[in-house]
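Dear colleagues,

For the upcoming journal club I promised to circulate an example of a predicted protein-ligand complex. I picked one with zinc ion because it came up in last month's discussion. The inputs are reproduced below in full, followed by the predicted structure.
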Amino acid sequence: MKPSIISHKISFVISILFVFFTFLISGQTNNNKFFCKSEMKIINTIDKKYLLGQFNYKSEKNFVKVEAQYGNKEDMYLQKEVYEAFLKMRIAALKDGITLIIVSATRNFNEQKTIWEAKWTGNKLVNGENLSLTVKDPNERAKIILNYSSMPGTSRHHWGTDIDINSINKDYFSSEKGNKVYEWLMTNAATYGFCQPYNEKNNLRPNGYEEEKWHWSYISIANQYLSDYKKTITYKDITGFMGSETSITLDIIKNYILGINQNCIN
Ligand SMILES: [Zn+2]
């Protein structure tokens, strides 16, 4: 064989190997890129089970138990950062002669389902009525329950970011004592990262729950949950309880999940 033919063959083999390795390397790079992207997605988006409350908060490492002296019942849990912010707010309130007690913290899907279905079936009376007898239309019945109770899978209490303070009774906040507490929270809660998502209903907040002066939300974390809820949850995810089909007709995500005090979002 002539030397020129040999060198031609060698350069041909080198070219083939070059193309092969280039392909291999670029393939690996693409895989890495893809992996990185999906990894980022996992890090940046909160898992649906946390958005929907389908987990056991007692065994989550970023949740802590509310100490007995700061709550009115046993076994309440919050995300650690939320609890620490509450404790700081509580100390500041005490200096002004205001006592803040947590009366409700994290509730998971099953706990919310128990509350919802008790009202749905009439086991728990609503405004003195057994709704299963007095309100036959499912949408109308859901609307009445929704005045103060969330559908399972749609409660901000699932997130470990929201607390009810001192009382869930409207009359308490109409009293002189309750009004003083509310005035203090209105002035100071934002300093500690809390906001009232269910403020007075008006043209800025025409939809959603009635006013809840007791419900306060730790918004820096809650807003991440709200944003991911909006992105990832659909009506197919709001299921597994009596009357869940009404979530679509009542447009729960738009009217209730997103029907909050806009000052808490901005
Ligand atoms: Zn609440």
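Two points we might discuss: The chain is about 50% helix and 5% strand. Residues 104, 157, 162, 164, 215 surround zinc ion (CB under 6 Å).

See you all on Thursday,
B. R.
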